[in-house]
Design a protein that fits this description.
It contains three helices and seven strands, in the order αβββββββαα. The chain is of the alpha+beta class.
Length: 170
């Protein structure tokens, strides 16, 4: 019985020691990404630490976390399709976790021009080795096409083929 009492006392002392010393969670960057309009969670937004190249994606609740980050100052970039890209500067310490929140602003975007070149490289229209036709927003409005393949049919020297005769996949 005395042996059991001594063991209980040692366990109690150990629990007391752990309760007194706080556990420090540092070297962590965590955060939340929401929409600015209605503050809904924004899932699957990409998060990038510019200085290290480390990246992650927000979960279904719009949350993200980086662990084991070296102390210092970093730039966090958030990108999501249909939203403006945001950058924020954060300071990472071993003493505390860094928490950063992003309110993403919707962005309506219209493509400028579609350049299709023969050499499969991104080149400017004037420096392309072959004739380049420009498709502007007026052409898309006139044709009122539901996809790009329908608009490409109206370009000279270009033929769109259907790969799947049953489903009509261009």
């Amino acid at each position: 019985m005395r042996h059991l009492l001594m063991m209980f006392l040692l366990v109690s002392i150990n629990i007391g020691v752990f309760a007194v010393t706080p556990i420090k969670k540092g070297s962590i960057i965590s955060g939340h990404v929401i929409t600015k309009d209605n503050e809904d969670n924004l899932p699957f937004a990409t998060i990038l630490i510019l200085e290290t190249g480390d990246g992650t994606v927000t979960n279904e609740q719009g949350q993200f976390e980086f662990r084991k980050i070296q102390p210092g100052e970093y730039t966090i970039r958030v990108q999501a399709l249909g939203y403006q890209t945001q950058d924020k500067r954060v300071i990472v310490s071993t003493e505390f976790a860094t928490v950063v929140h992003f309110k993403m602003v919707e962005e309506s975007f219209i493509t400028d021009e579609v350049v299709i070149s023969a050499n499969r490289n991104e080149v400017g229209r004037r420096s392309a080795p072959v004739v380049v036709n420009v498709m502007g927003p007026k052409l898309f409005e006139m044709i009122n096409s539901t996809d790009l393949a329908q608009s490409l049919n109206y370009q000279s020297g270009l033929r769109v083929e259907n790969n799947c005769q049953n489903c009509g996949f261009p």
